[in-house]
Amino acid sequence: MKFFIDTANLEQIKEANDLGILDGVTTNPSLMAKEGISGKENIMNHYKTICEIVDGGDVSAEVISTDFEGMIREGEELAALHEQIVVKIPAIKDGIKAIKYLSSKGIKTNCTLIFNVGQALLAAKAGATYVSPFVGRLDDISSDGLQLIQDIVHVFNYYGYDTQVLAASIRHTMHIVECMRIGADVVTAPLNAIMGLMKHPLTDIGLQKFLDDYHKLNK
Ligand code: G3P
After folding, report:
1. pLDDT for 219
2. Which residues of 142-180 are buried (b: 16+ CB within 10 A; e: fewer)?
3. I need a surface site. Which of 24, 141, 153, 155 has the fewest CB within 10 A?
């Protein structure tokens, strides 16, 4: 399973990358705004910097147009910025058309704001590299986000689609663990949820005992 970090914060991206386990980064306009990044030039430079930190990893950069022409214009500009850029496009009618167009040009795409299996299937048929079902936002409205991941994984496997299921809107460590269990191809998560995977009190207690025993005989 691939691990992406879901942030536009450069320090957090560096920290996850330094662990040696990072396969990519996902951003969205809200995450960029959270870092105070505005203006086309700054936004483009920020994406470039992220690509340079995560050498070889896929970096999702989202379009803000909602019409076909605007999305393909933005998508081509973003893709030309760096070879690691994946163009993130919303799961709306013109978005599906834009995914079809961009994928036929060999540009990688990530279909975002996926909340049902039908949207995921249309994106896969259009040739999306990734689909991003939002787990946490479904849980927030008393729906089962993880069930959606499981259903999309099942449908893609059944019909043999190459499109990868990228579980997004991950809120905590158990979301990641469950996504592994049900076979998501990628999880994009905040840094604290990724770091949570390492936590176990028996690891800390066991390590302390090993060190204490060593130091008893090695003053
Ligand atoms: O990048 C899209 C997604 O991961 C957003 O997550 O926490 O805003 O629902 P969240």
Report:
1. 86
2. eeebbebbbbbbebbeeeebebbbbbbbbbebebbebbe
3. 141
